Amino acid sequence: MASGCKIGLSILNSNLANLGGESLWMLDSGADYLHLGVMDGHFVPKITFDYPVVESLRKQLGQDPYFDLQMIVSRPEQWVKPMAIAGANQYTFHLEASENPGALTEDIHENGMKVGLVIKPGTTIEYLTPWANQIKMALVMTVEPGFGGQKFMDDMMPKADANMIVSGSDIMRSKDTRWIINLLRNVCSEAAQKCSLDR
């Protein structure tokens, strides 16, 4: 992925019958990576897909696109190896779902993936602090996990400086995907510059 602010496309609201085609379209429109939300029907009520879909998408798109998997599952430990084999670059798990985040982080690294941690809107940012030096990404949810198309919770923004934005519905529903991706990137860059000046 290029440096600076990154824009990831959440495929949650994609047409799953044309997932590869829509993913290519979004990458060609400027998305930096694909954000794949894996749900098991336990951590959240919705079920999406698991490693066979990730593997198929990797085969169709090749090795270049960066796949960040958000594991919205009750037992993230059980999916590390299958997702690594399927072609995931980053394994992002909900801190609220893991009984032993340290062991899980180590397992993810041992399986050749980068580690991301995600917290729900109601979880305080302090829960991420002990893991800051062991992870590639901290994701602060600005919607409740499990459903696309929700209203953005702007009161989550003070929790962390953003250098990556994950968006699905706004991009997928836009008439001009390249424009909306560039807008998100510019807003992210301007906010990052403001934060660095304020320090």
TrEMBL record:
Q: Name one Pfam family in it.
A: Ribul_P_3_epim
Q: Which reaction does it catalyse?
A: D-ribulose 5-phosphate = D-xylulose 5-phosphate
Query: Which protein, by its recorded name, is this?
Result: ribulose-phosphate 3-epimerase
Give start-end of the signal peptide: none
What is known about its subunit structure? Answer: Homodimer.
* Names of the cofactor(s): Mn(2+); Fe(2+); Co(2+); Zn(2+)
- Taxonomic source organism: Chrysochloris asiatica
As for what it does, the entry says: Catalyzes the reversible epimerization of D-ribulose 5-phosphate to D-xylulose 5-phosphate.
- InterPro entries per the record? Aldolase_TIM (IPR013785), Ribul_P_3_epim-like (IPR000056), RibuloseP-bd_barrel (IPR011060)
User: Its Enzyme Commission number?
Assistant: 5.1.3.1
Q: Tell me which Gene Ontology terms the entry assigns under biological process.
A: carbohydrate metabolic process; pentose-phosphate shunt
Please list the GO terms describing molecular function: D-ribulose-phosphate 3-epimerase activity; metal ion binding
Superkingdom of origin organism? Eukaryota
